């Protein structure tokens, strides 16, 4: 088991201001290929264009899925949304309560399983809302195994 993947769960309340790009593709047949494609494009070629980024080595990927298609984002968190580069989008996810787990890019499937088990065991349920979405946060430090946090919007 990875030292990075602690699988520790907690509840956090956060809002996010993001600038990045997205891809919409058939779900589930186009995933994870589509997600990797938009993340690679953004991280390798476009992230430096984002002004006011809090940390260019942290990639935030909110997503929305209706079971037929999914839209997956690759973004930087910003202090303020301004001067959004061409071909990108700036948006705010208002303050929401999230269940969060720490895992790695090698253990993300197990991370989701453990997080959803933890949500149910602790009396929460996943929140469906037009103003919140699940988020994957990738911390790139140049190692093959990277720390990942998964955030799922929750309610009681």
How would you describe what is shown here?
By secondary structure, the chain is an alpha+beta fold. The protein is 18% helix and 43% strand. It is built from two helices and seven strands, in the order βαβββαβββ. It has a six-stranded antiparallel beta barrel. A hairpin with a 3-residue loop joins strand 2 and strand 3. It is globular, with a radius of gyration of 15 Å.
Q: How are the strands of the largest sheet arranged?
A: 1-3-2-6-7-4
pLDDT below 50 for ≥5 consecutive residues: which ranges? none
Query: Kindly state the mean pLDDT as a whole number?
Result: 95
* Biggest sheet details: 6 strands, antiparallel, barrel
Sum up the overall morphology in one term. globular
Helix proportion range: 10-25%
Radius of gyration: 15 Å
Report, as a whole number of angstroms, the end-to-end distance.
Answer: 32 Å
Q: Determine the strand fraction and express it as a percent band.
A: 35-45%
Give the number of DSSP strands.
Answer: 7
Q: How many individual helices?
A: 2
Structural class: alpha+beta
Order of helices and strands: EHEEEHEEE
Structural descriptors:
alpha+beta; 7 strands; globular
């Amino acid at each position: 088991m990875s030292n990075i993947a602690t699988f520790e769960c907690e509840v956090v309340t956060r809002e996010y201001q993001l600038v990045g790009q997205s891809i919409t593709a058939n779900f589930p047949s186009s995933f994870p290929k589509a997600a990797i494609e938009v993340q690679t494009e953004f991280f390798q070629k476009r992230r430096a264009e984002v002004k006011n980024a809090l940390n260019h080595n942290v990639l935030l990927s909110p997503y929305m899925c209706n079971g037929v298609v999914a839209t997956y984002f690759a973004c930087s968190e910003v202090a303020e949304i301004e001067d959004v580069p061409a071909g990108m989008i700036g948006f705010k996810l208002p303050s929401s309560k999230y269940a969060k787990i720490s895992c790695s890019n090698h253990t993300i499937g197990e991370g989701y399983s453990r997080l959803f088990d933890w949500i149910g065991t602790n009396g929460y349920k996943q929140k469906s809302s037009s103003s919140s979405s699940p988020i994957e946060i990738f911390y790139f430090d140049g190692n093959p195994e990277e720390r990942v946090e998964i955030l799922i919007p929750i309610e009681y």
